[in-house]
Each structure stands twice: as C-alpha cells, then as structure tokens.
Write a structure and sequence with these properties.
Helix content: 10-25%
Structural class: alpha+beta
Number of helices: 4
Radius of gyration: 16 Å
Number of strands: 8
Largest sheet: 5 strands, mixed
Strand content: 25-35%
Low-confidence stretches: 171-183
C-alpha cells in the first residue's frame, strides 16, 4: 500500500493527530538506532538492505545451484515487485531514508535454511552493519520470518501500555522513537 504513494506520509495528511503508522521491526532490528541516525543527518546517508531467502519464497521456479541476485533497486520497487516478502525493507525505509533512498538487494539462495537480513548504514554520524538470521514461519510458504508476528505483537502491546523504547511511530513528520503519540 505505501509503495503506491509518492510520499507514504500523504496517507496521514489532514488534521494533525488524525493518523499514525506504527512500524514494527519485523524480521530486522535496530530501527531505533537507524531512525536516530537518520534524524541526525540523512542528506549524506546511505542504507542498504540485503534479503537472502529460499528460491521458492521468492517465486524462483528454476533449480538454482548457487545464490543468485534476483532484484536490486529501491524499497519502493521491491515492495511492488515482491509484495509478500518486502515488509522488512519497507519498515527499514519508513524508519530511515524513505522508500526511494533505501537500496534493497534480494538474493535467492538454494542452501539457505533461515531467512537472512543484512542492513548496512553509512553516514557522518556512524557506520552500522546489522545481521539477522530468522527461522521461517512454517505457515508462510517460506516468505515470512517466525519473529515477525512477535514483533507486531510487541508493538501492539507497547501501544496498549502507552508505548515504550524501540517502538517507531511514523507521523506526518519524521519517525519518532518510543512514543505512541507524537505531534
């Protein structure tokens, strides 16, 4: 849904406080530090997200014998091309540089047993490399990490409790960490 809009924040347009989007980290973590790094100065920043999944999860039908890059582009393009497997890329983009400045590389790997995510951030405020290897949700056809539902449950629990650290709230402005409500 977000990828179809030039600026996803347009979905929140209107009366201040009329809407917000809670961004669960899903299969990746570190959105708190990356969001803070983006607020510290995003003009010279770059962010890259590698997603490595089983070929069947990416609808790659041919028998691969080695890993193959099947996509390279923006998070927006990834969400449009791989709508069932790009939730982590979209969450990363919404928390940091946006859908068009977040580079996504999708790799089909026949030998991968778990879904792997690697996030690379570079800016004047620092350089970060975050790596995650997640078990696959058995009911997802290999498309979703088992931790994703728990991440969503954590955000909903934080919202019910008045929010807490690590919860990214997207408002009409920039992301705000740790607040269920924001101006």
């Amino acid at each position: 849904m977000f990828a179809r809009h030039d600026d996803p924040r347009d979905l929140l347009a209107g009366t201040p406080g009329a809407g917000r989007v809670l961004v669960p980290a899903g299969a990746i973590g570190g959105l708190d530090v990356l969001g803070a790094a983006a607020r510290a100065g995003a003009s010279d920043a770059t962010v890259r997200h590698y997603t490595i999944k089983r070929p069947t999860a990416l609808d790659v039908d041919e028998q691969l014998t080695e890993p193959r890059e099947v996509f390279r582009g923006s998070a927006r393009q990834a969400a449009l091309e791989f709508p069932r497997t790009s939730n982590a890329s979209v969450a990363l983009a919404l928390a940091t540089l946006g859908l068009d400045r977040t580079e996504v590389i999708v790799v089909a790997d026949p030998d991968v047993g778990r879904t792997r995510h690697v996030v690379e951030w570079e800016s004047p405020v620092g350089r970060y490399e975050l790596q995650f290897e997640n078990s696959v949700d058995p009911d997802s056809g290999g498309r979703t990490s088992a931790i994703t539902a728990w991440s969503v449950a954590d955000v909903l629990g934080a919202l019910a409790a008045g929010a807490g650290p690590g919860v990214v709230v997207l408002t009409g402005g920039r992301p705000v960490e740790g607040h269920a409500t924001s101006p």
